[in-house]
Amino acid sequence: MNERPLLAAALAAVLLAASALAWAGNERVTVIRSNGSSVFANLVDPATQSSGFLNVARDAIAGTTLIDFAWATPVPGDPRHVVLVQGAGEIPGAAFAVDREGARLNVVTPFETVRCLVDIEDGVFDCAAAPALAFELSWTRIGEQREWRQTVSELRMGPLTVRSQGQFEVNLASVAGTFAGLPATGGFGDLLDTRGASVTREVRMKTAR
């Protein structure tokens, strides 16, 4: 199965956070329930051809803040393989600030990440635990237009599957900063708010466990 279109589809990923972590076979499953503010970012670095997404959200009911992310980077000189970096989990509340005008994230993940070598022609992959990663990103609101959305979606990126459903208000934003030491060049994203509604997000990551 050719995974290249699925990896590109990461740029259209969605939504939010508040979690429960479990194992299902060799999958690390994080079930995320969100009520409150959230941000989404397209992660793009032209120099390494890395592309993917990041979501951060604060659950106003549970008082937690969570992050989930994934991006793929081609292996130089090897058009058949990409390296997929994945992660999901809770972060300190002080690492994330958000208001109507924008948001800021400054954190080193307090959990291990997952790194996979993915064959994009036949879908075979090999994953292992990887070190914590640093993120320093800022979102700045663009314009006044806000849109209310109701969504049910499923995103696949090789060994990663993200299923989301819920309702939220969204405002376009510019994104700047770094992810894992890579510059987020010319990035765009969204400022999101559930406005009393809720969003459920299930992140399933293949691992070496």
Q: What share of residues are in beta strands?
A: over 45%
Question: What is the H/E order?
Answer: HEEEEEEEEEEEEEEEE
Q: Provide the number of structural domains.
A: 1
Count of helical stretches: 1
Major sheet: 16 strands, antiparallel
Mean pLDDT: 83
Overall spatial form: globular
- Percent range of helical residues: under 10%
Distance between the termini: 24 Å
Count every beta strand, where a strand is a DSSP E run of 2 or more residues: 16
Short description:
The chain has one helix at 4-8; strands at 19-24, 27-34, 37-45, 50-59, 64-75, 78-91, 96-98, 102-108, 113-119, 125-130, 134-141, 147-157, 160-179, 182-183, 187-193, 199-206. The chain is mainly beta. It has one domain (4-206).
How would you characterize the overall build of this protein?
By secondary structure, the protein is mainly β. It has one domain. Helix content is 2%, strand content 66%. It has a 16-stranded antiparallel β-sheet that branches. The longest helix is centred in the N-terminal third of the chain and has 5 residues. The N terminus is likely disordered.
What does the secondary structure layout of this molecule look like, with pairings?
Layout: H1 4-8, E1 19-24, E2 27-34, E3 37-45, E4 50-59, E5 64-75, E6 78-91, E7 96-98, E8 102-108, E9 113-119, E10 125-130, E11 134-141, E12 147-157, E13 160-179, E14 182-183, E15 187-193, E16 199-206
